[in-house]
Amino acid sequence: MTSKGVAAGARFAGRTILITGSTGIAAASARRISAEGGTVFIATRTAAHGDELAASLRDGGAPADSAAVDLTESDAAARAVDACVAAFGRIDGVFNVAGGSGRKAGDGPVDQATAAGWDATLDLNARSLFLVCGAAVRVMLDQDRDEDGCRGAILNMSSILSRHPSPTFFATHAYTAAKGAINALTVTMAARYAPDGIRVNAVLPSLTRTPMAGRAAADPAIVAYAGWKQPLAGGLLEAENIAPAAAFLLSGDASRITGQLLEIDGGFGVTDGPPPDAVAEGSGR
Length: 285
What we know:
alpha/beta, 9 strands, 7-stranded parallel β-sheet
């Protein structure tokens, strides 16, 4: 039961959650929230993915809709938030998942990365999230408080690499800097908006099997490394391993939780890496 006696299986009943992104962790979380009675609005750059995900949620009997937007554009976040409010009347939560690697744009170790790679990677991950947060908070500040005294919840997507670097396999410094910026933004937003009844938290997943992680999942050395560093998973995490924590932090069950950076890492942050020869041989633990 939640703090107000609502069955856990329906804890998102009457609540609308905006999720940015439409594959991987975003899709798994959308399905989880929808299954628990929530209304889901998908904001994604790829229209076909958003439409398909929203349709699948509606087929399951839950309200859902989507909008195709490039969230790095200045007015796109506001358009997505406005579309969500127009469709469903309010926004009770936001899960900022959209983002990605900047390798192709020029991200890498700082001695090799390009200025263009830095700009593109921060735009894709930090700038887009910042814009969505601003647009959502402006709506939430005008909403009535719910039975827990809250006006809304924001959950940001960070990365385990922002706290526990992995220089051998993941020396993408702009990406890590973007996720570090998201950590700082999360905490400072939580401090500013707690009196207004708006909660802000972040999740920091480790190596997770998503479309973005295709390079890692196809590399035997990285798979072996994950087998050592993530012993609770025995390899890469699955998107469905992140969704329950995301749903909790967006739900009324977490109504007194804000400013937290939750590592969901299968042990990555507390586990030694494998001996170099084990990784080179592609062997697991």
